[in-house]
């Protein structure tokens, strides 16, 4: 949950990129890092294995600027997508304010998408968070794959009620990355102001 | 949600700052931070002679994540928690101690500073900061104001297009 420092006039929010392994979560962060001016972002920290698979998390601090005298900052995290790193995923969800669920368009990853969403619900529940309480944006990534499944088919297994805002993306080309981040940021800050 | 937000107000903030400063003055520690368990820096102080500090956001995130992983390990081993973490290198030491359930006192110092001395004084500081944070539980929740959303949307448009 957001940390608000009224004395230092700072608001800090945590956004987590979630999804199955290799769906493009780290690529989203790398694109943000490469495009945001240096004075508005901090160092990107990646705790990865030798073959560059996320081991614990990636982390990127991002300064939005000052709103009503409050310096507003987002901390962006990815989780490791591989199934056996669930302990890490659970830890990183602690205090989450918003989630980007990055789904993979490849036909053989449809089940992995569904399992990752189920895992997200379970891990949020373990933190005492109802999945409906936290803003979630759905990003259907890798739309440029030649055999990409229709976005509606992927959504049907992840978000059958069509409750989430959805973006189609090609994160390696930067398509849809900022649109997704902007939407989840807006939802997080709207929620913050409503609860105060 | 089980994670409450943590809010530091003017007077309390200054008192926490002063506690960190006193600890640095007494022990010769280079950097002192109060970090919340979600990985955000709540307060930090550095010695006048200290070189430019490392990226504090990264330090706070890694310290909080490490503490979370350590707590999970403690649970696996049947402990409620491990209250302190010490990482010693050739030239320096990172010392982290829990302040209540929400925050972590994080101290960075070089090899010339005795760890035992730091531990003794840090424990006193932890007690004092915990008491200050405890007072904040009864503080009223300030409002962000009606125009907050408009300002936020304008900033998001500027930054993310």
UniProtKB/TrEMBL annotation, chain A:
The UniProt record lists the keyword Nucleotide-binding: yes
Claim: Nucleotide-binding is one of the keywords in the record: yes
UniProt GO molecular function: GTP binding; GTPase activity
UniProt keyword list: GTP-binding, Nucleotide-binding
InterPro entries registered for this protein in UniProt: Gliding_Motility_GTPase, P-loop_NTPase, Small_GTPase_ARF/SAR
Pfam families for the chain: Arf
This protein's name: Gliding motility protein
Organism in which the protein naturally occurs: Deinococcus metalli
Lineage: Bacteria, Thermotogati, Deinococcota, Deinococci, Deinococcales
TrEMBL record, chain B:
InterPro entries named among the record's database cross-references: LAMTOR2-like, Roadblock/LAMTOR2_dom
One function term, GO molecular function aspect: guanyl-nucleotide exchange factor activity
Record protein name field: Gliding motility protein
Domain Roadblock/LAMTOR2: 16-109
Top-level taxon in the UniProt lineage: Bacteria
Pfam families referenced in this protein's UniProt entry, alphabetically: Robl_LC7
Biological process according to GO: positive regulation of TOR signaling
The species this protein was found in: Deinococcus metalli
